[in-house]
Write a structure and sequence with these properties.
Blueprint: H1 12-23, E1 26-27, H2 39-49, H3 66-80, E2 90-93, H4 95-105, E3 113-118, H5 124-130, E4 134-139, E5 141-142, E6 155-156, H6 159-165, E7 170-176, H7 188-200, E8 204-208, E9 234-239, H8 240-243, E10 252-255, H9 258-269, H10 277-291, H11 300-321, E11 325-326, E12 334-338, H12 356-367, E13 370-371, E14 390-394, H13 399-412
Bound molecules: 4'-deoxy-4'-aminopyridoxal-5'-phosphate and glutamine.
Length: 413
Amino acid sequence: LPSRYAGSETSVWNEYIKLAAAYKPLNLGQGFPDYPPPSYVTDALKEVACSENNFLHQYTRGFGHPRLVNALSKLYSKLIGREINAQTEILTTLGAYEALFSSIIGHVDNNDEVIIIEPFFDCYEPIVLSAGGVPKFIPLRLKEVEGRLPTSADWVLDKNELEGLFNSKTKAIILNTPNNPLGKVFTLEELTHIADLCKKHNVLCISDEVYEWMVYKPNTHIRIATLPGMWERTITIGSAGKTFSVTGWKLGWAYGPENLLVNMQLVHQNSVYTGCTPIQEATAIAFEKELTRLGEDECFFVSLAKELEVKRDFMAKFLSDVGMKPTIPEGGYFMIADWSPLESKVDMSSETDKYKDYRFTKWMTKNVGLQGIPPSAFYSTVHKNLAENYVRYCFIKQDENLQKASDILHKWV
Ligand code: PMP
Ligand code: GLN
């Protein structure tokens, strides 16, 4: 194994998916809907699959299928408030994963520093390391709250600590809003602070916005690329898997200025070269439909967020009813909860993992029949202790299964 991969051998996903297959718990671990996507989306794929147009079954344009980049350009031009060139300012990728990979590998050089906000989607760190970069971590910290449950807005960055990380070696910052796993939706004030630092130190912003449509009232998703002077230095990343509840389609994209996109295209053209044609065509059809009803009640992006908000509230209630302390997420479809009030009911002596949240989640999977993800997977080694009292649960699940999760927990405590 090349040394640049040393330390990245384990993956919480591979480990916990295997564990779920072995113990068959109620699975609130890996994030994916356990119910079907909207039928017009699957119908689009059906139509494409049966199409006699041979071109829909052959290689498409390497940097993005024409119909899809046109739809993405229409959508994001509107949302960003500037004309986005479909040919030069968008790249479609194999999931948001590849967009993250291409943007990091395409910009980070040996010894470049990259600021990563904790908790972070776990692949950021190994990708930065494999580029030869040096990750610099800063944790969001929970403020003291009294008389109510915390929300993801109560998890904040220390401004001075953040400023202290920016220097002449800083190449990029990776932002994730709404954040996985906290659900934090960064506010205009927080984004402005980050943007000002990026501009002052000439730093690139890689903004992972895959949960852009899952934002709960009264919060709003702000795209950092829309802040003054930020378009020039931001790559924004999205995912069809999240947008249309089709995580298995593994289609993502990035948009930003041409001079940054060319660097990503270089990585893409010699690794993936071109994405899956039928999936891109079907996703284009789905976007074209949503473009006709953007912001209306019938718009899937609107109805999905409404549906998820109810699930979020249901989960927050049953977790707090059994004695955990959830952080109410403002966005995304995950919830973290402090399980330490239940510690006396857990006997994890048979579990050997270093971190308590791993021991807890494994013990729960095996003995209680409910799976969550250990959030220390989303922290650097030095900060993993900050997450040990927490578990992450996914709530984009059928009501019936959320009810089952509630029953399992009530029966256990
Ligand atoms: N970023 C975040 C924050 C995610 O939660 C995910 C989900 N796996 C991804 C990126 C990757 O998305 P995709 O499945 O489209 O590769
Ligand atoms: N984004 C999803 C999650 O956080 C899936 C991650 C994965 O499968 N690698 O659970």
